[in-house]
């Protein structure tokens, strides 16, 4: 997280793995920090601390991040390649309003 162009951070919770995700505002990332995996303009890192969705959300907030959302089918397919059939928790809410963005509920 040494990039000076870092504008937004998000987090994934994948089963018992916490996956951190960063996104640069200009969609251009020179390189990911050590031990992170790059997917497009995003970087993923793993923390094997088991936690609930709510705990993961708070953990992400503590890092200045949010639980992630997947915005394109390409991102979705790449994440499947990385994690296989592992169940994935992502950001969302229990609110009554659902909207669709690129075919994915957000």
UniProtKB/TrEMBL annotation:
It comes from Neolamprologus brichardi. It comes from the Eukaryota. Keywords: Signal. Residues 1-26 form the signal peptide. Gene3D superfamilies: Mannose-Binding Protein A, subunit A. InterPro entries: C-type_lectin-like/link_sf, C-type_lectin/snaclec_domain, CTDL_fold. This is C-type lectin domain-containing protein. The keyword Signal applies. PANTHER family: MANNOSE, PHOSPHOLIPASE, LECTIN RECEPTOR RELATED (PTHR22803). The keyword Disulfide bond does not apply.
